[in-house]
Amino acid sequence: MYMAGRSRFYSEKPYVIKSCIDQRKEIFVAKVKGYFPKSEYNNLLPLPPIFRNIEIENKEVVIGEYMYSQAQKHSLPITKKDRKLTTLVDTNGQYMVFNNYYLWLLIDLGFVITDYKAITVFEKNTAYEPFVRTMMDLRIQAILAGSTKEKFYKLIINSSYGYDTLNTEKFGKIKMLDKAGTFIAQHHPNHMGTKRISANTFAVQLKPKTATCFTSIQSGVFTLDNAKYWYLNYIYNFMYKCLDRKRFHFVLADTDSIYIAISGDPNKDCHYQFESIVTDKQFYDQHVYQYLPDPNKDIYDYKKILGFGIENE
């Protein structure tokens, strides 16, 4: 799996975008619209595969009768929109950006692209791998030594891939203005939002013309989408192929973690993971330790790159 290097070309021509997606040779980010057919819903609804932040309207038909009634009961604001990380079976009528690995997986799961907006193709890059492996080795050595440096190495890895991608503060400039200044600022094309502080003081957020970044934005975009790719690849191409889907349930999901409730063997304790709900033993035995830690191996296997660690049982 490659990371994005320098940009090779950008295009808004639909036939170019479609060709790059279909050929599966280049690495890219593409902005598209699409959906999963209803015939795929039974397979997808336990954990819809499109992870994206979208604006949610706090309407009863959107958030459900119970949540809506609770919001009204406790006088919570329900008129404004909230931005939430959501799992979807379509792009919500919007253009959404996906990197090549994530988009190809969605297509393999049945995703239908209805419109093409733009694509940026990048040079392939593996320069990040030796850095990650070195930092992970140092982190494991720190864990074995009981050193607090473990947190230090973890922070280095987490912040190195594209902190600027997540740091949204630099993409919005806030000014404190009086009523007259606020009136003028709200008519500026870069106006983003206004919040009243006092009778004649307002916090006005403007979008700056430029922003300084010390890491490549594409590295952050690829890391976040690659995380979703591996996450969903594990679920759809491992769990769904060898486990009894009626006996486990996704409780909570985030970008890099998931809580799963398992209806296992009541005569065993909680440390047997999926063993009691395996339906294809041969497939399970062949692939399980590509993802999960092997109990017969050491911490290097538990912390293997692109592996899944078990935090609590």
TrEMBL record:
Which InterPro entries does this UniProt record tie to the protein? Answer: DNA/RNA_pol_sf
Superkingdom is: Eukaryota
Protein name according to UniProt: DNA-directed DNA polymerase
